[in-house]
């Protein structure tokens, strides 16, 4: 029982998809009642005995049109082909099928099958009293106008609504992503500021510390002067420590988003490799022994590579001043065929300088080498740092001449476009197959052409049928009773029962056992009333014309 209950519940949910709010329940019930009443009234007007069953069937199909749109469309084609009552339901069924059947070929199949049922049952009902071609043509035009056109418009509306919902959802997503990109850009800028503070201010504070350390051991100064220099040196060391703490906080907040390749690509304030000699001179002025050499043919550098080389030399000199004060330093720039090699080496610090009185502990925030490796990685290079066999220290960086400038510039341009308000193109937005208006417009155009063709064909067929069912007065007068059937039919038009069927139940009684043919008689006399039809009847028996009679009917 439980399984049956679940199956029944699933079937009901499929046939009557929700949500069923009170307002919708009332609306659907009222609409079903109206549809049934309209169908019943049309059956009453058509003088048939199917008003009640057709009314109930239309009401039930109206309620099921959302859950089973294809089935309802086919069944509506069956009953609409048999009677005029469900013609309004045919419009609604076509609308529901166009909006709710997503697969194109399933939709086309449902409409083809519905039309076949519509035309077949129409022929079964009226085929005996009219031309099959006429019934097929009329049923095709009616089905196209009352079922296909509403389906095309409803499909266009449904696809347009789905497209707008998708675009609205994508726009919301882009707004959220843009806010994230702005936040990431801020973090990258914080990281860049922190890195520049560490490199530039740290270097200057290291030079101050080296200067003050050299003055501390200067025997020409008095004790009071050396004490003041010691205070200056301790202040410089404290400033370096606080600087590294601030840089560490900024760096930690930015580690979730690595800096972009172009983030540090702006022109350095103190120059690129051209400023390396200035760094060397500043260190020499502080009393350090610094040797500088440039080897190879100089090559043009990308802006980010130029800036990275400058910062690498600056940080290496700062580390040498801090960790090996008094030791000679060698700075080399080597222009290799495919990359720039930056190398800074220094031997072990002299014991005399390292053990000088008042020397404070070396301040290291652990950010310098990490920042250098990140700079080199972003331009497509690498950094190696470590001790030498002579107990010294060596820092070497390999930087490609072009770097990752093209890729970084493209990424930066895209990010700037997002931040400044540009939206990336929607994938498939220019694909004509995804534009609902094109497909629906093509369908409407095809339906319009077909209907226009059917109307033109109907006009021609009507004129031809009217001509085939009309006999002139002169021809009528020439035909005499007693002539053979073949001779009479040779003089008469082919005839058309569609235009003369109303004449067959009127007029004088026909001869017993005879077979008759009816025609409209074209008298052409002035003053004939439009409400009067002149009819000519020819009756045959045994292959001979036994009667010809003319009478008037009210039309």
The protein's oligomeric status is single chain
Principal-axes shape call: rod-shaped
SSE order: HHHHHHHHHEHEEHHEEHHEHHHEEE
Task: Give the beta-strand count.
Answer: 9
Please state roughly what percent of the residues sit in beta strands, choosing from under 5%, 5-15%, 15-25%, 25-35%, 35-45% or over 45%: 5-15%
Overall helicity: 55-70%
CATH homology superfamily name of the domain at 188-419: Histidine kinase-like ATPase, C-terminal domain
Side by side, the strands of the main sheet go: 1-2-3-5-4
Query: What number is the mean pLDDT?
Result: 77
Calculate the terminal CA-CA distance, rounded to whole Å.
Answer: 66 Å
| CATH 2nd-level architecture of the domain at 188-419 | 2-Layer Sandwich
Major sheet details: 5 strands, mixed
List the helices and strands and how they pair.
Elements: H1 2-15, H2 22-45, H3 51-64, H4 69-82, H5 87-100, H6 104-126, H7 132-216, H8 223-254, H9 276-285, E1 290-295, H10 303-323, E2 329-335, E3 339-346, H11 351-354, H12 368-378, E4 382-387, E5 393-400, H13 405-419, H14 436-468, E6 470-472, H15 473-478, H16 485-491, H17 497-500, E7 515-522, E8 532-541, E9 544-554
Parallel strand pairs: 1-2, 6-7
Antiparallel strand pairs: 2-3, 3-5, 4-5, 7-8, 8-9
Helix pairs in contact: 2-3, 3-4, 4-5, 4-6, 5-7, 6-7, 7-8, 7-10, 7-14, 9-10, 10-12
Descriptive overview:
The protein is α+β, with helices and mostly antiparallel strands and 555 residues long. 60% of the residues lie in helices and 12% in strands. It is built from 17 helices and nine strands. It has helices spanning 2-15, 22-45, 51-64, 69-82, 87-100, 104-126, 132-216, 223-254, 276-285, 303-323, 351-354, 368-378, 405-419, 436-468, 473-478, 485-491, 497-500; strands at residues 290-295, 329-335, 339-346, 382-387, 393-400, 470-472, 515-522, 532-541, 544-554. The strands form two sheets. The protein has a five-stranded mixed beta sheet with strand order 1-2-3-5-4. A hairpin with a 5-residue loop joins strand 4 (382-387) and strand 5. Helix 3 runs antiparallel to helix 4 (69-82) and helix 9 runs parallel beside helix 10 (303-323). The longest helix has 85 residues, at 132-216. The relative contact order is 0.07.
